[in-house]
Specification:
Layout: E1 2-5, H1 30-37, E2 46-49, E3 66-69, H2 75-87, E4 92-95, H3 97-101, H4 103-107, E5 112-115, H5 122-130, E6 137-139, E7 163-165, E8 168-169, H6 180-184, E9 189-190, H7 193-202, E10 207-210, H8 220-236, E11 241-246, H9 254-263, E12 265-270, H10 277-283, H11 295-298
Parallel strand pairs: 1-2, 1-3, 3-4, 4-5, 5-6, 7-10, 10-11, 11-12
Antiparallel strand pairs: 8-9
Helix pairs in contact: 7-8, 8-9
Length: 299
Amino acid sequence: MYLINPSNPLVSIIKIKESRWNRFRVWKPLSLMVLADLIPPDWEISIFDENLGVPDYPSLPRPDLVGITAFTSQANRAYEVADHFRHLGVPVVMGGIHATICLDEVMERVDSVVTGEAEGIWHQILEDARHKGLKRRYDGGLAASTEMPISRHDLLDSRYAFGAIQTTRGCPLNCSFCSVSAFNGIHYRQRSIADVVQEFKMIREKRVLVVDDNLIGTRPEHIARAKDLFRALAKAEVRKEWVAQATINFADDDELLALAAKAGCSGVFIGFESPVPDGLLEIGKKFNLLNGRDFRASV
């Protein structure tokens, strides 16, 4: 089985001559690494990330199944890859955010489409493929936190500047412009802290991108869990520098900031969206207006 992340025309590690920053603009295709962990051992798996370079597919052994994920910027290349393998008679399954949002378009270009998060139905997809009974569409919905496995970090090489990990899914803010709530929902789901620490230790890179759309959440119990996670990472001495994404409420808790730094946090992408109340109201991000927020003081 081949799991493929198509090349992205916007960013690529191999285009370092165009900009040395390109090496830092690409992270691992974590969704494929997650699904790889759920594949039974009698399947032989290869993950190809075309952002490291496009493989010579004709020279490779013919697979029994191809799985593709894609953002919209990768969709055209995804269709080219799908066409190649379908002409060989290999069934192609495509999932990810583009396939979920643009379902009708994608169904015309592949054999089967997976919408939503695939963990809960991936086993059924593999069984159907094994018996040549793939359905045209599978709806994964939202996976429970207990269904989120440890990713197969061993299946990709070490040319990345950053490792990648996900500790939560979903974002309760539901901003009007954002795809996160449409794809991962507004229910904030948190993985087991023990699993997260174990996975951190498996990452070979010294720097890690925590891909959570909102690492610390918004409610007191979310913040408490984030503190517990940071304490566990520090205690385990994983010795990684990591960066994450969060909301400006990260600045409201000195203990949270101190624990994050102790756990290896070296940077946080903050979703300001707009510095003025009218702009925040227009996009539905009222959370940034709570408690008379002073952005300058928070920074």
